[in-house]
Amino acid sequence: MTAVTQEAGAPSGAALPPGMDAGEFAIVTEGLTKRFRGGQVAVDTLDLAVPRGSVFGFLGPNGSGKTTTIRMLLGLVAPTSGGYSVLGLPQAQALPKVGALVEGPAFYPYLSGVANLMRFDSADPTAPRASAKRRIAEALDRVGLSAAAGKRFRNYSLGMRQRLAIAAALLGPRELLILDEPTNGLDPQGTREVRALVKEIAAEGTTVFVSSHLLAEVEQMCTHAAIMRTGRLVAQGTIASLNGGLVTRIRVETPDAADAARVLGTLGLADVLTSDGAVTAELGGHAPERVNAALVGEGVAVRGLAVVRPSLEDVFVGLTGEGFDVDG
Ligand SMILES: Nc1ncnc2c1ncn2[C@@H]1O[C@H](COP(=O)(O)OP(=O)(O)OP(=O)(O)O)[C@@H](O)[C@H]1O
Predict the structure, then answer these.
(1) Do you know which PROSITE patterns this protein is assigned to (predicted)?
(2) Are both 134 and 118 inside the same structural domain?
């Protein structure tokens, strides 16, 4: 692994996932730690491995260390100890290939989208002036704002404003896009627009590292996730592997709970439990429609039947014994 130079020195040497090398990853951190003055440990010996090409959800309740981690990856905050690698390159070479949206850029309300991006682009001393127009047009096109490019920023919807901010992060070819809570403060329409845009950008081959405190958002938008709690990594992997440790259950609402429990047991479903007028059991390989037919065939009055799939929230609760408190 090529460690990005930082004052804390070399990476800790913590193990990468077996059989993998740093070239496969857009971001690797090893023992990454940030202790603020006053003793607060915001990020605690964090080992992250973000595969290239993934949409990687960096998930955790408020205050779990997500922004501090992102600020370290971007060289805005020096780690106390540990190391990190971005795109396997030294920081000066990596950063031009990284687009980032950490705190929303300040746009001028009375200027158009395109004029705002021109101001933004001209503030970057590394961006060649001759190709500015093309670069800006491409970024606007990529976020679907070409038609609204001449409209004043103050007349943009919340979703359009955030898409313009993402366009600002995409001025130039990027291998990695880092977005800190990009749907925060957006209305449902704006949230949908940003989620769709993230998927499109990923489909074009850019790795997207996106922080969120919204479990459902990460489940919908991401291929992989890392779950944080008070600065520590709780789990990471593909969404399927994170959910995979938990079983899908079937839930039957019925006034005939005892009969329903007997039928589920006869069918071979495991861990049959009865409470509050409902019977639940591990679904295993059984088809829910067959289970329903068997229940009805045995005279059980089925008021409701649901397949309860494990969620990332269940993963978090299972691993920490705590609820996922977004205000925590
Ligand atoms: N400059 C700082 N000085 C001292 N403590 C800080 C500083 N920045 C962050 N912290 C603390 O570090 C912890 C992690 O904060 P951080 O902002 O990284 O979390 P987060 O997961 O991004 O949360 P949020 O979603 O609320 O931004 C918090 O307890 C926070 O109060």
Answers:
(1) ABC_TRANSPORTER_1 (PS00211), ABC_TRANSPORTER_2 (PS50893)
(2) yes
What one-letter code names the amino acid at 1? M
Same-domain check for residues 58 and 187: yes
Residue to mutate (ligand 1; options 35, 37, 58, 66; most atoms within 8 A of CB): 66
pLDDT tens sequence across 135-180:
999 999 988 899 999 999 999 988 899 899 999 988 888 899 999 9
Residues 136 and 270 occupy one common structural domain? no
**Residue 293, domain CATH:** 3.30.70
Q: How far is the CA of 63 from the centre of ligand 1 (A)?
A: 5
Q: Are 33 and 82 in contact (CB under 8 A)?
A: yes
pTM here is: 0.79
- Return the pLDDT at 21: 61
Note the pLDDT of residue 321: 74
CA distance 51 to 236: 11
> Residue 7 carries which side chain, given as an amino acid letter?
E
Helix (H/G/I), strand (E/B), else coil: 291 = helix
User: Which atom of ligand 1 lies at the shortest distance from residue 68's CA?
Assistant: 18
Residue 273 carries which side chain, given as an amino acid letter?
A: L
Express each pLDDT in 213-269 by its tens digit: 888 888 889 999 999 999 999 999 998 888 766 678 899 999 999 999 999 999 999
For ligand 1, which residues put their CB under 6 angstroms from it? 36, 40, 42, 60, 62-68, 213
**Quick one: 142 and 264 in the same domain?**
no
Q: Rounded to the nearest whole angstrom, what is the distance from the C-alpha of residue 326 to the centroid of ligand 1?
A: 14
